[in-house]
Design brief:
Number of strands: 6
Oligomer: single chain
Shape: globular
Structural class: alpha/beta
CATH architecture of one domain: 2-Layer Sandwich
Strand content: 15-25%
Largest sheet: 6 strands, mixed
Distance between the termini: 10 Å
CATH class of one domain: Alpha Beta
CATH superfamily of one domain: Ribonuclease H-like superfamily/Ribonuclease H
């Protein structure tokens, strides 16, 4: 492979995931493409920006055959990848927890649209019907049909919690559900500060966070007094916008093809690799995307 940085990242990732699966080996004949190889392939696909799985597998055959000597057909690859979602989630958590960023008690939360279809027939016939829905994207001043990605990250951009939800759902309810599912994470971080935008404002929601031991930092409304720490909010809020820009610009979240989780995993893997190798800009993916 021409890019040694990407080669090193993929090799390390495959070994670590393989070690994590040591206690969960296949009974009987193992698959020709292991789960660790499958997830590593998905990370490489996200980092290199291949939207088409067919083109991606052709590229792997031509350029990465030494790392992945066996590849399934496109349909088999897609089915295996869909079934591997629990492993992808586990890998994201594993990589994030293996950095100093994981223990940061300042979290930033935001949501961003993940369009899943552009036509009326797609909204009627897609497998996502009943989960996806119509929402409004304020930054592009347009409606979309799909999901919203909710991302809770540290100031360095390391993903801590994430979820895909119907865009009609209340943002506060989605975040509360995320916190309920990972209550132990909050309990391990006394004095946790959650930085959010005005969409997460409500006295009831803020009281709920306080009961969890979380302080909410958000912009004040015109009718409110300036909130404590608000002067620092603008620069901090730009961090989550930068993370979303990385997911959409470099990891093709806008043209995800169903690979949203793999994009979050690619981000976590790159951040961790940059952290471990002492790179000056931990959130930069430039050394891996070509």
């Amino acid at each position: 492979m021409a890019n040694e940085n990407l080669d090193t990242l993929l090799t390390a990732l495959q070994v670590e995931i393989d070690d994590e699966l040591e206690s969960n080996r296949w009974m009987g004949r193992p698959p020709q493409l292991t789960d660790s190889e499958l997830v590593t392939l998905a990370v490489a696909q996200a980092l290199l920006g291949f939207h088409s799985e067919t083109r991606w597998l052709r590229y792997v055959n031509a350029h990465l055959a030494s790392m992945f000597p066996y590849l399934p057909q496109q349909s088999g690859y897609s089915k295996r990848l869909g079934a591997a979602l629990p492993l992808v989630k586990k890998a994201i958590r594993m990589l994030a927890a293996d950095t100093d960023f994981w223990f940061d008690n300042h979290w930033i939360v935001d949501s961003t649209p993940v369009p899943c279809g552009m036509s009326r027939p797609a909204a009627k016939r897609s497998d996502l019907v009943g989960w996806a829905g119509y929402g409004y994207c304020a930054s592009h001043s347009r409606f979309f049909w799909g999901l919203r990605l909710y991302l809770v990250c540290t100031p360095t951009g390391m993903p801590v919690l994430w979820a895909l939800a119907n865009p009609k759902l209340d943002e506060r309810e989605v975040l509360q559900a995320m916190l309920d599912l990972d209550a132990a994470l909050v309990a391990d971080r006394p004095g946790l500060l959650l930085i959010a935008d005005k969409g997460f404002a409500s006295k009831e929601f803020e009281n709920d966070l306080a009961m969890r031991g979380i302080e909410l930092l958000r912009p004040s409304f015109k009718r409110e007094k300036k909130r404590r720490g608000e002067s620092l909010l603008k620069s901090v809020r730009q961090l989550i916008e930068s993370v979303n820009d990385t997911l959409k610009g470099q990891l093709d979240l806008e043209q995800h093809g169903g690979r949203t989780a793999e994009g979050v995993l690619a981000l976590a893997a790159a951040l961790r690799r940059n952290h471990k190798t002492g790179q000056p800009v931990t959130r930069s993916l430039l050394t891996f995307d070509h």
